[in-house]
Write a structure and sequence with these properties.
single chain; 18 strands; 13 helices; alpha/beta; Alpha-Beta Plaits; Dihydrodipicolinate Reductase, domain 2; about 25% strand; Rossmann fold; 3 domains; ten-stranded mixed sheet; six-stranded parallel sheet
Length: about 400
Amino acid sequence: MIKMAVLGFGNIGSGLVQLVTENADIIEKDLGCKLDIKYIVDLRDFKGHPLENKMVKDFNIVLSDPEVSIVAEMIGGSHPAFEYSLAALKAGKCVVTSNKEVVANFGEVLLQTAKENKTAYLFEAAVGGAIPIIRPMRESLSSDVISEINGILNGTTNFILTKMISEGMSFDDALQLSRDLGYAEANPSADVDGIDSCRKIAILSALAYKTVFPCDKISTQGIRQISKRDAEDAAEISCAIKLIAHTKKMDDGKILINVAPRFTELDSPLFAVNDVFNGILVSAKASGDIMFYGRGAGKIPTAGAVLADIAEIAKHMSCGQIPPVLWKRDDGEGLYDSKLEITRFYCRVKGDKIPENASIVSRKDGQSSFVTPVMDEYQLNEMLKNFEIVSEIRFMK
């Protein structure tokens, strides 16, 4: 029997407990032994809950129990999630997590600690929810050369943008609908300001290029500034606006990483990724373009990804340590200036005039929108220095 502890009994934590309980027979058949949740750690009281006898508030109970070999961390936030994970790894326990903030901020420390203590730190659920992306990058693509990654990594923003494009909703109305349906939090900043996508692309970039960068150094733009007019213009030229998280290794060895809304054209595999779904396009030298698609969030899908990591650890317990993935931290010196990225831009300005080498999209309500030739952002700023700018959106190449 394998005994484990669940840290945090919120949305994902309770989903994991539900899956382990409901699928007990399937799990036992797959692993060859029973998986038992010995402790559920949460500071709240759960009087009368069927699992009340497993509830504890003191993490040290888990830490000092030699029977617990796997800890599933789903507390959220950086602290005390990092400290609990670090202590568990040092105690020789394996740790799995859905916490993208901890992985992005402290992954290199936790992975190194896991290696030193001959244990494991897995985080499939931290990016893409139910989409298996971490394991393929860690295993199937580990010997390939990844040239770039483009991803729709946040279901809430994708839902909002889909409604703006397909139903002509304003940003505010689409955001409210996403709240009503339970997709957006009361404070939606992590989603709509691109913070969630930034953490996820930082992790994918670290897997691809073995270097992680601080999220506050990564160029990040959300979707609050996207208007109904922008969405209408996108549809006019057979494009969709998507919040794209992007990373690429440049010719000078530096890593380009950014998060920004982009005009995505009809021939892109990401064009048809709508509503709350996520899509991740990995481009590799030998494998070519590989598309990962599915539900990027949700209680049960994300809990299922956590359970997959637990199953992988359980299967390796009898045959040795899971090969560790390691990366280093760079405080920003190795980042490529995102303003030097070469692309086209959609722009909207006040008045009827547009730059002479631009292609008109629409003229109405005293504003003109157009698409520029390929250029970088510095060149764009020079082109538009005599215009009153209303909107600027990059194209996805």
